[in-house]
């Protein structure tokens, strides 16, 4: 038999799990990495404040009215699409709640529908020249059908997980507001980082370093090394630090949101009534006691992302130099030189780093679920992902998570297009025009594009919260489904039905282990 735990531990972490997980008194997990993150944040903000770039040209006062008009137009193109996007999000959430299984099936065949529409438009404009597109459409349809045939039995559990996640989000709507705030902080961080980077660059221009001789591949023949005198160069360690800071802080902010969402859902999982302080307490834990674990996991992804950016930059630079060398040899010798393939190794390393980044991001998304549930250190949470989650459930958990992810990806596109369409309708209804001589079609395109961009941003923020909730629901149901049966019996019955329908053998084994 399993022993039920109290809803709240001494550490303040909600217990949606079994009693086998023990927590000690509150303490800061992985504190060294939290300190390092705060130090680098202070350094970048200080550079933005004290080394901020100075404007080069003063604005003409005669153009003040034009600037005001442009600012108001930009504000309208931001606020109105935001409202349209929020309306689109509500419509999509209602649709997913009512037709979750149909939405999952739609996610598989939407690429085929889009390919058919593209091929029809191309055929109308190009005639027989569009025949290759129809071959590609047939391939997309075949792949979609095969994937759906392979995962169709997992659809009930993914659909029930999605419905339960939507119910948790409806009970704690403040999660969406917290997600919007996090996105705003990420945008603000990008702005501060850009100001700091530009300020450092201008400081180097005003205080140049002594000239340095570097050996670099020759322009006429990259296989040879030529000396080059460099002035006003940026030290490599500064570039690495700025890139690492950019990725690290953005990852930390996003993962704080993810971990706080996990803690909120864990409280909802064990409580019959809504806890008004659950969201605030979960955010406090993610920003204090678990901040070190979040910083450590985020640092892993940030390091890989930094290496990926450096390799990509080096590869692109080397490719341009080889193209220049080819052009120089062609002019000098009047013959076509043999193409170099020195960038192949860089391309392979770049792809490997990209794969490693995606894997680390995926593992982090599950590890932070355990951080939010138990307050574990990052490495302890990572061990639970491998030992308690994937080693026991394996493919069912992975496939269900990917199904939900696929649906949310489709919904992002749907919300973006819907918000763009709503904005165009609003533009027609209120007869928005611009004082410039812009073509009406171009103006409508700008309005639609603004709606799509803002809609995709809003949907990404909202649905990222839903994705975090879905993963928390999967883990909590595997750890302690009895808690949900006590707090939300109807939802427990729905999840149990979805699990037993999708994985009958795994469900029998799971029930036997719990007895």
Instruction: Work out the number of β strands.
Output: 2
Strand order across the largest sheet = 1-2
Our estimate of the beta-strand percent is: under 5%
Largest sheet: 2 strands, antiparallel
The multimeric state of the shown protein is single chain
List keywords for this structure.
515 residues, Choline_transptr-like, globular, Choline transporter-like protein, mainly alpha, two-stranded antiparallel ribbon, 2 strands, transmembrane helix, membrane, transmembrane
Describe what this molecule looks like in 3D.
One of its GO terms (molecular function) is transmembrane transporter activity. It holds the Pfam family Choline_transpo. Keywords: Membrane, Transmembrane, Transmembrane helix. Residues 321-343 are annotated as: Disordered. It contains 16 helices and two strands. It has a two-stranded antiparallel sheet with strand order 1-2. By secondary structure, it is mainly alpha-helical. It starts with 30 loop residues before the first helix and ends with a helix. It has a domain at 79-171 and 394-515.
